[in-house]
Every structure is written in C-alpha cells, then in structure tokens.
C-alpha cells in the first residue's frame, strides 16, 4: 500500500506540468498560436489527460532531445502483441490502422533502418532530380487543363494530382490508377469518424488497398522497377517480411507522399495570393529565394504536425522523468514556432536564415520523402508563378481541414487568373505519354542503376 | 576555417548543400552530407556558418 501511495505521489510530481491538450479539436486549430505560446512559456513538456494520458513536447529543445533519443523513445507499433504492446505513432490509435503497422515509421532500428536502406536509392536528392522533366510535364498538363478557363482549384486540379501521379510513378504503379489512390488518401485524413461520408470513404479506401495488394502480387510475379519492386525483393536476414508488413510500408509511402505535399502547396499558394508583393518578389528573386521560401513554408505550415512515440525505459530527458510505457506526442508544428530558435516565429519571412525547422521530423525517422516533397512543391510553384502569375484565391471558397491533428491540410482552394493558352495536351493524354517514358526508360529504377535524367517526348 | 559533418548525427535533411553547394556534397544513395574538403574555401565562411546554423540535427561543426 505504502509503496503504491509513494509511487502515485511520485507520479503526481513528475506530471506536475499539466496542460489539457487536444489537437483533434477545431479549437486547437483556431487557437494554435496562443496555445503554442502558452505551452512554450509555461510547460514546453506537459502531461495531458486526453486520450488515455500522454506527454506533449512543444518546445524546440525538448522536441529535439526526445526525437533524437531513439534508444529510449520507441516508434514501435506492436499490432500482434509480440513485444511490449506499444501503440506506434498515432494518438489516439486510429481505428482504420487497427491491426496493421504503419511501415517503418512504426518500427525501431535495426528493422526500420533496413527498410530505409532499401528505399533510399529511390528517394535521395540525386534520385529525385532525375525525375524533374517528368514532374514538370505533369504540372504543365494540370495547368493546361485550366489555363483557358481562367479559374482553377489549386487543390483538386494541381496539388492533389502531381504528388499522386509522381508517387505512383516512383512506386511502379500505372499512372492512370492515380484516381483510385487520390480521393481515399486525402479523404481518410479529413473525414471524421462520425461523418455521413465515412462509409463511402471506407469503400474507396478498401478499393485502394485492393489495388495496392494487386500491384504487389503482380510485381512479385513479373518484376518492373520501382518502390514496390524494392519491397517485393526485400529481405531481412534472408527472410521476406509478410505481405501485410509490405502493404503497411506502401501505405506509408502513399500517405506520406500525397496529402502532405498537397497541404504545403495549397497553404503556400494561398499565402502568396494574400501577399502579392511577396509573390512578385519571390518570382523575381527565385534564384536566391526559392529554397529559403520553401523551407519557410515548411516551417510555418508544418503539414505533418507531429508524431506519437512510446517511452521504452524509465529515464530522465529534457528535465522530465519518464516511465517505460508513457505515451508522448512530439509536436513538430509547435517546435517550429519556438521563438528561442525562430525569431518572430509567427511571421513568414521568405528569406529566413538559420531555419533549422522540424517539418520533416528530427532524428532517425526524418521524412524519407523530404526530397520528393521539396522538389514537387518547387516545380508546381514555379510553373504557377510563370504561367498564372496574377492568380487570386477566393477567400470564400478556400476550405481548410476542420482540425489539424493529423495533417494541416486544405480541401479546396479556388482561384481566378487572366486566361492563357495551353502548351500541350491535357492530363489523360499526357499520362499516357509519361507511362511510355516510365516503361521504356525504366524511370523508376533506383539511382544506383540509372543515373540519367528522364527524357520526355512531346 | 575547418568544417566537419558528424556522420552519426546527419540525417540527410540537405539544407547545408542548399545553402553552401560548393562546400557540402550529398551522398547519391541516402542524401547524407559530407564536406567536399575539410578546409573551407576562402570566401565561403559565411555560408558555412549559415549552413551550420540551419542544420536541423546540429551535425555541422566549425573550427
């Protein structure tokens, strides 16, 4: 009895910095800046009673230390109860993810490292740079579809399409299948479980999972290059992981590759519409500003706002006493607004220096698609600035996600602009041409096998 | 000025090579950074300081 009492007193003591933190409420989105400031001032690490109780790391130095301590902080999602029953990176656990592990983002080393080593040669800067002509052609076709009309929805007509098509291209999945993957991937994030639309979204998701399983089986039987093939051939200690594990990795690539880049692009285009002088400056000084502006949009809008973790041993970190099994939320988004690292953190400065932001995570789980995200974002932005430089987003039509607990995204971003002339064929015809390029040039080979840039015939 | 990238800390964020492309090179396979030469070329000192300050993993040291 007395031991229990002592430990519960200890527990009260180590959890003395408390904050009611619920990132899944619309209120968190509306009051993000004031909540962030409050937490930075009072409790850069806090205990929250929400979702079964968990720690929240909001301060930059606290998030930095915890995210870099993979020996004491686990990503494991033990879906079959074979290890210590850890819940992976979702707080609370997502019903849709029940029973399946979210790829290597829900694994610890060394397993996690083996997967990344297999996929890195497809996703490194050198690997992604080879694809630039391909990406540019998809962007060109998306804009051409709309340029004569003088209006576009940047989410539906551009920022959803390019990341989806390009992700499938890298995977080795037929480009024309992009619509099977597009809606369910975005809708799974923005559709709450109590929505009347949830059944329809669930069916779309099921169809996507079936296509993914079909692609994996097909590529296992008849190899063609890409990320799916890398996984189809992947072994740890001479053994192939079961298909459900590989499908979890493929789901991670799709989930990571689609909605995040869409979110970044839509937010940046919206901000640039609201700041036309800054837009003109960015276009004019792109050689010196494009990189820093991209990093600044990443910092400010942090599409993936954080990750869950589980403490894997009793320890003290960042001035806090943790117990094995404690759950932890690492907020990249709040760390990115810490004034001790980012002066005037709530202001967008396209030329910001020393921008060591957390948008892709910190530590061994750094977003493996970070080079994809940056490249796709920049190629979309440049063509928008060049081809429809006077676009104006309709504030009435813009739809942001109701909550920012999973992705800080947008559903709609309609805009008007001075009409122009198309430069080439529309999207469907373009995807046929690009599919032939993928097949003939084996574009989805890893950079270790193919160094040359894609050649796009038109 | 000398510059080092701590291999164990670098996670391939690539900001250093964006800021100082003549000083840092990225591995083709995993994008991790290393200095092209430990000696910083004359005139590149400011950019190298900026790169060190921009590294999300704080993996770059200057001496």
TrEMBL record, chain A:
| PROSITE patterns noted in UniProt | CYTOCHROME_P450 (PS00086)
Alphabetical list of SUPFAM superfamilies matching this protein: Cytochrome P450
* TM regions (residue ranges): none
* UniProt key word Cell cycle: no
User: Which residues lie in Basic and acidic residues bias regions?
Assistant: 12-22
Q: What's the protein called, per UniProt? A: Cytochrome P450
Record family assignment = Belongs to the cytochrome P450 family.
Please give the InterPro entries that the UniProt record associates with this protein: Cyt_P450 (IPR001128), Cyt_P450_B (IPR002397), Cyt_P450_CS (IPR017972), Cyt_P450_sf (IPR036396)
Write the record's keywords in alphabetical order, separated by commas. Answer: Heme, Iron, Metal-binding, Monooxygenase, Oxidoreductase
Map out region (Disordered) in residue numbers.
Answer: 1-22
* Species: Prauserella endophytica
* Pfam families, per the entry: p450
From TrEMBL, chain B:
User: What SUPFAM superfamilies does the entry give?
Assistant: 4Fe-4S ferredoxins (SSF54862)
Q: Does the keyword Membrane apply?
A: no
Query: Which Pfam families does the entry link to?
Result: Fer4_15
Supply the alphabetized keyword list.
3Fe-4S, Electron transport, Iron, Iron-sulfur, Metal-binding, Transport
Look up keyword tRNA-binding and say if it applies: no
Instruction: Please name the InterPro entries in this protein's record.
Output: 3Fe4S_ferredoxin, Fe-S_cluster_ET
> Which domain of life, per UniProt?
Bacteria
User: What does the record give as cofactor?
Assistant: [3Fe-4S] cluster
What is this protein's function? Ferredoxins are iron-sulfur proteins that transfer electrons in a wide variety of metabolic reactions.
Task: List the protein's name.
Answer: Ferredoxin
